[in-house]
Amino acid sequence: MAYRTIEVKPCSPVIGAEIRGVDLTQPVSDEQFAEVHDAFLQHLVIFFRDQKGPMTPEQQVAFGQRFGELHIHPAAPHLEGYPPVFVIHAHKDSKLANGEQWHSDVSCDAEPPLGTILQIQLLPPSGGDTLFSNMYAAYDDLSPRMKAYLDGLCAVHESEHFYRGRYADRGVNDAGKKYPSAVHPVIRTHPETGKKSLFVNRTFTTRIESLPEDESRAVLQFLYQHAETPWYQTRFSWRLNDVAMWDNRCTQHMAIWDYWPNERKGNRVTVKGDRPV
Ligand code: SIN
User: Fold this and answer.
1) Residue 50: its pLDDT value, please?
2) Confidence at residue 1, expressed as pLDDT on a 0 to 100 scale
3) Probe ligand 1: pick from 101, 105, 107, 118, max atoms within 8 Å of CB?
4) Which of 75, 125, 132, 260 is exposed most, by the fewest CB atoms within 10 A?
5) 2 within domain boundaries
6) Residue 51 above 90 pLDDT?
């Protein structure tokens, strides 16, 4: 697509593009939204640079809703009054930071989020980058024999081990709460592009169904390492009020917590997705 209302600068030939010319504190026209949506599908993760300031929660929710209904996080606390807004926050007293391990957001849900929109509104003096990896490329590079082996296999994605007690220091009491788990194809087909991607990750995927335990573990280890190959990646260094939007159906990401004891904070909304097929 030739873009008329936005400027699109790829970060690499494989994944990611910087977008200029969009002010997310203002309503986005239909024409501009169509171009942003196209860039999102083309580049898998898009970075809106040069934002004028923080989006209000209403503005971020409204932008997310252009892509579809918003998803509510099953574990994390939300911004008061805004159930779809998840505050990403790490500081000197934090025991953990969000997304420190490679993952696709909330893949433990039966219908995991299509995409995630994050604006970082408080930055450490340095560090706090986020890595993104292209899961179409990871699939394409598998050998024909491995593709045939994985074809039709499904994997279990769980969250009990990951979410239980995770947000206790942010006031979440999860006693009696049941965290989601789901079974998804190891190779999924993107509902909009029709392309195949690798859909297992070390945060939520616990085993491949119908394989012996040790074989499942060995295959998953291979796939995790393969998915994390630097060739498939881009690394985003945030500037204040930058906004990233990534496609959870064909990427994984990992946030680098190298800035402790400094603080980093932002608001995140996720858009509901389909059941992976
Ligand atoms: C996440 O949503 O996984 C966190 C990403 C980030 O903080 O950069």
Assistant:
1) 87
2) 80
3) 118
4) 125
5) no
6) yes
What are the DSSP calls for 155-190, one per residue? EEEE-HHHHTTTTGGGT---TT----EEEEESEEE-
Average pLDDT over residues 121-140: 98
Is residue 109 part of the annotated active site? The answer reads no
Residue 76 is assigned to a structural domain of this protein: yes
Q: What mean pLDDT do residues 116-127 have?
A: 98
Does residue 78 lie within any of the structural domains? yes
Q: Which CATH number do you get for residue 110?
A: 3.60.130.10
- Is residue 116 within 8 A of residue 105, CB to CB? The reply is yes
Instruction: Give the H/E segment covering residue 9.
Output: strand 7-10
Ligand 1, atom 7: closest residue by C-alpha: 255
Q: Is the peptide bond before 261 cis (omega within 30 degrees of 0)?
A: yes
Catalytic annotation on 253? Answer: yes
Atom of ligand 1 nearest to the CA of 116: 2
Question: What six digits make up the tokens of 41?
Answer: 């599908």
Domain count, the chain: 1
Nearest residue CA, atom 5 of ligand 1?
A: 255
| Predicted TM-score (pTM) above 0.70 | yes
Q: Is the CB of 107 under 6 A from ligand 1?
A: no
Task: Please choose, from the candidates 39, 63, 85, 107, the residue with its C-alpha nearest in 3D space to the C-alpha of residue 252.
Answer: 107
1 domain-assigned:
no
Residue 252 in contact with residue 135, Cβ under 8 Å? yes
Statement: residue 275 has pLDDT above 90: yes
Q: Which of 42-51, 126-135, 163-172, 264-273 has the lowest mean pLDDT?
A: 163-172
Q: Look up the domain containing 156 and give its range.
A: 7-271
Burial class of residue 156 in the structure, from the number of CB atoms within 10 Å of its CB (0-12 exposed, 13-18 middle, 19+ buried): middle
